[in-house]
TrEMBL record:
Residues 9-69 form the HTH tetR-type domain. The keyword Amino-acid biosynthesis does not apply. GO terms for molecular function: DNA binding. It comes from Mucilaginibacter mali. PANTHER family: HTH-TYPE TRANSCRIPTIONAL REGULATOR LMRA, TRANSCRIPTIONAL REGULATORY PROTEIN. Pfam families: TetR_C_13, TetR_N. Keywords: DNA-binding, Transcription, Transcription regulation. This is TetR/AcrR family transcriptional regulator. Transmembrane segments: none annotated. The lineage of its organism: Bacteria, Pseudomonadati, Bacteroidota, Sphingobacteriia, Sphingobacteriales. PROSITE patterns: HTH_TETR_2. Residues 32-51 bind DNA. The keyword S-adenosyl-L-methionine does not apply.
Length: 203
């Protein structure tokens, strides 16, 4: 049964959804309260009536951005028939990153947040770290299931595989963004594809 949101909950959700692309594009330090009030049309008092401070808005915005992308990936993984195809979802979905299809404005929130908050904002850094660890575990679980199903080799180093896929994708996103060259990501995703293809049992 769906729950009807209260006025306060609707306002809070509106603030999150409206500011999420701003934080993801300008970063925590680059986003001012003026940016937030201008985008939402709300007063500073209204913002602070729903959030303790700007950081709390930023944390909620990260959850919103990451949750949006994660849902896209989970839905596509669930639709894929083989474990190989389930892993390939990561390559195909992140390929769309540079094509502005299915991603929030500003690009990958995990990469953006990790770079900015590495040494400056503990709570935001922890959000990004948690997202990476969750991603790693999701890949490991798919590899384990693929091994159990007889689809992948038994000698796979699961953690190395998961971390390599993540590093290649996030590195590709970073390179393509910083050089404004989408083909860099395409090239790196070919390596991700080759890595995933190499997991399969050779018949």
């Amino acid at each position: 049964m769906s729950k009807t949101l209260s006025k306060a909950e609707r306002t809070r959700q509106f603030i999150i959804e409206t500011t999420a692309p701003i934080f993801n594009t300008k970063g925590y330090e680059g986003t001012s309260m003026s940016d937030i009030t201008e985008a939402t049309g709300l007063t500073k008092g209204s913002i602070y009536g729903n959030f303790e401070n700007k950081e709390e808005v930023a944390l909620a915005a990260f959850d919103h951005n990451h949750g949006y992308i994660k849902k896209i990936i989970v839905d596509k993984v669930n639709q894929a028939k083989t474990y190989h195809d389930k892993l390939m979802v990561y390559a195909t979905v992140y390929h769309s990153f540079t094509r502005k299809s299915g991603f929030v404005k500003g690009g990958c929130p995990v990469l953006n947040t990790a770079i900015e908050a590495d040494d400056t904002n503990g709570p935001l850094r922890d959000k990004a770290a948690g997202a990476i660890l969750n991603w790693k575990n999701s890949i490991i679980n798919l590899v384990k299931a693929g091994i159990a199903a007889g689809e992948f080799r038994h000698d796979i180093d699961q953690e190395q595989t998961a971390l390599s896929i993540i590093a290649l994708i996030e590195g590709g996103v970073m390179i393509s963004k910083i050089t404004n060259n989408p083909t860099s990501l395409d090239t790196i995703l070919k390596t991700v594809t080759a890595l995933i293809d190499g997991l399969k049992v050779q018949l």
